[in-house]
Structure formats: structure tokens, C-alpha cells
Amino acid sequence: MKSKSLNQSTVLLMAISAAIVVANINYIQPIEAEIAQQFNLANAVVGAVAMITQLGYAFGLLLIVPMGDIVNRRTLIMRLLILAIISALLAYLAPNIWIYAIASLLIGITSVAPQVIIPYAGFLAPTGQRGRVLGNVLSGLLVGVLLSRTVSGVLASYLPWQTVYLIAAVMIGLLWLVLWRKLPRDPRPTPTVSYRTMIKTVPKLVKQYPVLRASAVNGFVLFGVSNIFWATLVFYLQHQYGWGSREAGLLALLGVTGVLAAPLIGRLADIFKPRTIIGLGLVLSTIAYVVFGLWATHIWGLVLGIIILDLGTQFGQVANQARIQSIDPKASSRFNSVFMFGYFLGGAMGSFFGNLLWGLAGWTGVCGLAVVVLVCGFYAHFVHYPHVLKRQATSLNQ
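and the corresponding C-alpha cells:
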């Protein structure tokens, strides 16, 4: 039976909302070189600012997203959008790197609305369609990541890079007006649990559910290796091909493969064990870096590697969301908070250490770092997690 409050147009609106808001945290990646040039900074310094954005997002996930379990989610989403507009305007007006760094931190913290929308969609979706609905909304999230890099890179090649943030503020403002009229009302009664009490339950949930810990680690790995690539791509293009932000942004369009695949991945997660789909994500990401390491000097190697890498990231994202949203609907926002905290903490570390390794060892260092992280991911997924489940089953049977 289809949810009366979650028809096809509502799912599409949620997907578009996720795309527009999440784009804020990725605008910086293709324009790092322009920012470094304007403020006369080393690339590693701008890489640290990109990390600050991701860290802000991670801590917003940890401290704000869980509120979705105790407050009206529609109201929370609308308020977050207003704060996101203010943060984008501050980045647009920033006169120096310090103000821009503060704006970047605030952009990260205030751009977590999609992570309230995702569990909200999972809550409203009929049980047998949860994977498909989440796959569609997550497609919007990936579109936002994809187009943010493209829009940012192309605009910065023709206009001052700050213009990107002005356009972002206008788009979120228009989105706010649409959501005010169209976003479904939260059907839950308002819980009486306090914020402090609710936050205290988060570590208990992490301890209680091995699947939640496994998803957070997997998200850390897959988004970490994705950001290792995207944070350093513009520098590699300058070094290898003499290209800049425009070409980096255009290459990001190749991620449309992952967008198109997301609904299919969601259906697969409804049919097969999500853990199997996640394993495929690790394999695909590894293959991508083999391609980057061997053939990135050829443009076809970059193209092929980007397609495979985005598919690997999306396999992990959709399948992990499907399995954590099936644990307990009453705590869906907290589960999403823990998972996405690990996810964007990995992204922040990937941005920072990717830039660091680029400065120390070039493209070889970048690819080597990603392979090391992926080896850790394989161990966690195929060795450590099954061992934890086996130990847990043994203790329950005793």
C-alpha cells in the first residue's frame, strides 16, 4: 500500500531539495586553485579549509540531525535552510581566508537538511518500497554533489568564484518557498524526550547495533576515497594536462552514471542483502583506483575511473542507508546521524590527506593513500564485522 503522504511528486521534491542543499559543501572542490591564488595561499591551506567544511557537516550530523527524532522534522528542515542561506551569503562576502573559513564551517554545519529529509522519506515510505524511495532521494543527493562540482568549476572559469555562493543562496531561498507549501507535515506526535536525553542515547545505539558501526566505518572508507580523488583532481589536471576548474567541473558530470544507477541499487538492496551490495561498492572503488594509478595519464583512463568510482560510492551509500533505516523507525534520525558522521568524517580526512599526499608524493601518493584506506575497508567489512556478529550470536546462545 502506498503512503498517502509520500507520492511520486513528494519523493521528487525531497530529491531536489537534497540536491540543492548538499551542493553547498562541495562547491569548494573545483575552485580550490582560484581561492589559493586570490588569497595567496598554498594548496594545502585551501585543502584544510575544504576539510573544515566537511568537518562542520560531520558535526552538524552528530549534533543537529538527531533532533529529527524529537522535534517536528518539517520545522527543523525549514529552519536549517534559512541558516544555510545566511552561511552561503557570508562566503560570498568573505574579504579574507579567515572569514571564508568561518563561512565554510557554518556552511558545513547548516547544510545537513538532506540528512533530516532522508530518514523522513524512509519513515513515510511503505516498508516494501523503502529501498526504492531512499534510492530515489539519494539520487538527488548525488545529483547535488555532481552538479555542485560542475556548476562551481564552470562558473569560476568565467566569473569570480564568490558568485557560486550568491547563486547558492538564491536557489535555497527559492527552495524554501516551495517546501513551505509542499513538504508533508510530520505525522508523528511531538515526543517529550529532551535534547540532552536524546543525545545521550546515541553512544548507546552505536554500542548496541554492530550493523550501525559497520555502516559508519564503511561510509568513512568509501566517501573518504571519493574525496581523496575529487579534492586533488584539479591539481592533477593542471599538472598533467594544463587544465583548470572548468575541466574539473565538466568531468564531474560523469557521475551521472551513479545518479542513474541509484534507483536500481535501491531495488537491489530490497532484494539482496545490503551487505552484499556494500561489498560490491568496495570492489568497484578499488578497481577505480587501479585505473587511476595505471591510466590516468590518458583522458579515457580518468573518464573510466570516475564512472567506476561514483558507482562504488553510490553502491555503498544506498545499501548502507537501506540497512540502517530498517533497524528502528523511532531512532531513524539518530541512525542516519551516526552513519553520515562517519561518512563525512571520512570525506573530511580524504580532502585533507589527499591534498597533503599530493604535495608530498604527487598522483602516486594520492592513489597509494586511497588503496591503503580501501584495504582497511575490506578488512572491516569482510573480516572484522563477521567476527563481531559471530561473537554476538555466540553470547546470545550461551
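(Above: one complete record from the training split.) Residues 332-397 form the longest helix (66 residues).
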